[in-house]
Amino acid sequence: MRKMEKSRLLAFSDKYRIYLLFVAVFAVMSLFAPRFFALQNMTSILNAIAMNATVAIGFTVVMICGQLDLSIGAVITFAGVLTMGLEPLLGFPGAIAVAIAGGAFVGLLNGLLVAKAKINSFIVTLGTMTILQGSIYQFSGGNSIGITTPQAFAISDFLGVSLIPLVTPRILIAILLVVAVELFLRRSRAGRNFYLVGGNKNTAWFAGINTDRYQIAAFVISGVTAAVGGICSVLVSTAATLKLGENSLMYVISATIIGGTAMSGGKGGVLRSVIAIFTLEMLYTGIILFGLGNEVKIFFAGLILAYVVLYEAYATYKHDKSLGQRPELMKEIKKRRTASGGA
Amino acid sequence: MKRATMILIALALVSLFAAPVFAQSANLKASLAIDTKVLKSADGQLLLAPSTDNRKVPARPASPDALPETNPLHWYDMEWAGWNVTPMNIPQSPADGAIGKKIIMIVHGDHPWTTACILGGKKVADLYKMSFKALSPNWDKDKQDQLIDQAINEKPDMILLIPLDAKGAVQQARKINQAGIPLHMFNTLPDAAALNYSLGWTGPDDFGQFRLLARAWADELQKKNPGSAPIGVAYVQHAPGGSPYFARSFGPISELATYAPRIKTLEKASPTPATFDANTTMQLVSDWLTKYGKDLKGICASDDSAQSLGIFQALEKAGRTDVVVVAAGNSKQGMDLVKDGKLFGITYQTAEGDGGLAVSYAADWFNGKKMPLRQNLAQHIITKADVAGFYPPQW
Q1: pTM for this entry
Q2: Among candidate residues A44, A45, A41, A73, the one with its CA nearest the CA of residue A59
Q3: Would you list which residues of chain A are within 8 Å, Cβ to Cβ, of chain B?
């Protein structure tokens, strides 16, 4: 009985580990980190995660499909540079539309090369990342692009103003996108098909699913969300820097894995990735508020990632070992052997 | 009796209101009495050496961007940023003394230079008994934005900022200004518009230093290569985006266009993917040496440590000892290379002095002094002749 309770508890903590980690970090930081549990600080954390949370939406969908998109960081910068660079020609609405279309195009290109040309997504997206980085430098002439017009400042101020406590328009955009994609993935047949494609592509194909179309769609979603993340970020800071998305790639990959999305595909969720980003950001902010340096922050990020990766490896090992086994039958055989005197 | 009580109450009230005024005045007096000349940096130099730059600020051309990149005035808005600003919503100095004030320094990233810079700032802050806190975003502009939010939440008496990105600094400065917190920017030059919201800017005059370095470099190159044939040179650039990217390549390029027209730019590039990495720099320079061979006579680096080490690794592999190399900064590696006769010259970029000057500027402002919009660090080119005087290195 106790053993059964223990295994149920383990299963629960395994399933909801990111939420438990979130609560634990929040509680510890609120109790001990100076000024952590303050409205301004929480708003500042939410504003800080808005870009990566938006980017993680599409990245998670790609990973659920069993693929990897290394171009997200470059797409963030690309979209940001397009928004600021084209604004004098097209105005903000036109420039934003072109930047989103640019992100979607990069996603489409990635998707076609992965699904149709059957090239490994790691190679494809590494290539697009490099090409985009070169294009960005060509387009910008190696310099950041800033706009200091009253309109740019007005947009920036609007995106940063609190609509209700904790929620600014920038955060609201991220929340709406997370809710929409999470509901789509969980509640619609098309959404669930992404899991099926990532879990077992052949089975999905036998079930009549056009697997190529889902893979391409996943990359397009990733391109669009990365572009939206980049656009929102440059609108807030009124400048597109050439290193805008540089740190996002590793951050989003780590958070998505910590959130429980399997690199092999078929498992995970957008909300989990975003909660993982929130948890990491709370941890980092807390470390700063404690007056500790970046080395401590990097150490803890590595520690969490190492723990999650090791745990995943252990869970996969256990799962593989138990494949085809029927514990009830083993128990019955053991019982009969004991009853017949261990013969 | 009644009258005496009234007098006593009046006296008590007067002393109650007058005490803070007297305390303020005493604090100011004590703050003004502090002499920063007692402070020295790790290399034995004065922490706050007076600036030696006496150049006149030229008139701004109508459209600097329309001028060729080889014209110094093309870089006007970067080189002379801060001299002609329109201050906006700048707070008044409390003029009640620097002692006891709380300042937050937000730097650009983790680096031995930054550690020395923070140390310099802390030396001055400790002298003035100011509360001093340093925050580092580790080269992440988004993180720097977040640290600015956090700093604003802490409501310090002043924020000192090294902008990570020249253009991105405008909104950062505006945000701090709107929060009503005095801002002082230092080290890297932001876009001129950012300085509208800042009390001022202090730091190395990168363009000025590199014009000085370019002249010394040109003299040596022409001495080694007499005649009228073109002298090919290349520039290993800083990370794109910030002012050093332009100042440390286009500064000398535009200076040499008139000072030594024989010197021709063959290449300029920032090592990728890692800008300050010996291996990537070595690869970049090796490619140049293969492409240009003996035509490449000089290299100017944006960094005297990792980049310079990479350059000399490439030169050694190619068996070249004739290339005249100059670089920015005075790290231990850089000064050792100068001492060994490898690097011809480096700019004196006191890291401790940079941080110290920013905090000293803040202290002077709290003390009610009229502060200049821009204050440069002392300029100097270190060569083999005087490198011994700069040991032990600051970083």
Answers
A1: 0.83
A2: A73
A3: 35, 38, 40-41, 44-45, 47-48, 51, 137, 142-146, 148, 153, 156, 233, 236-244, 246-247, 285, 288-289, 291, 293-295
